[in-house]
């Protein structure tokens, strides 16, 4: 029996990525407070939120295999979230120009009925180019990446902001590390092939 797979996310980026696996899945919004805890490192925040998202939905659908994911941009130990608007995105990109960030992308897979719980982290090292204020504003007007951690979409024009990307899971920067996700789904009993 193939269990129902649920993506515990409202992110269209994660939904599009998971669809690449040609897997039937549902989407449910998790009920999770994403506020960082005092002193919580970006890596720990991403891991905690990925698991909390999966667990939140798994409580409602205990027979399903639930995927939770979260991404936090890590600027020298400081978490950078989704900017939400142009002014905050501009401020983020100004701080990031010429610097290296780690995008901490965590994924968790949970099935309450079988007591299956796995989580993993796919850190992505990203080097930003030195960017003029004009280049930052041109980019932001073109893509409006206000719902993206770190204010850039590497799968679009945002790639022009970067000097280098280093990762062992190429979709992690977009928001869902599919290599790790596929491995966890197989371990949870979901046959992908």
- Nearest-angstrom radius of gyration? 17 Å
Global structural class: alpha/beta
Q: Would you report the number of β strands?
A: 7
Instruction: Give the helix level as a range of percent.
Output: 25-40%
Topology summary:
Blueprint lengths: L4 E4 L3 H8 L6 E3 L13 H19 L4 E11 L2 E3 L5 H11 L3 E12 L4 E13 L4 H11 L18 E5 L11 H10 L6
Brief rundown of the structure:
The chain is an alpha/beta fold and 193 residues long. Helices cover 31% and strands 26% of the residues. It is elongated and about 55 Å long.
Question: What does it look like?
Answer:
With 193 residues, this protein is an alpha/beta fold. α3 packs across α4 (133-143). The longest helix has 19 residues, at 42-60. The chain has helices at 12-19, 42-60, 86-96, 133-143, 178-187; strands spanning 5-8, 26-28, 65-75, 78-80, 100-111, 116-128, 162-166. The mean pLDDT is 95. Strands 1, 2, 3, 4, 5, 6 and 7 form a 7-stranded mixed sheet that branches. It is 31% helix and 26% strand.
Features:
about 190 residues; alpha/beta; 7-stranded mixed β-sheet; 7 strands; about 30% helix
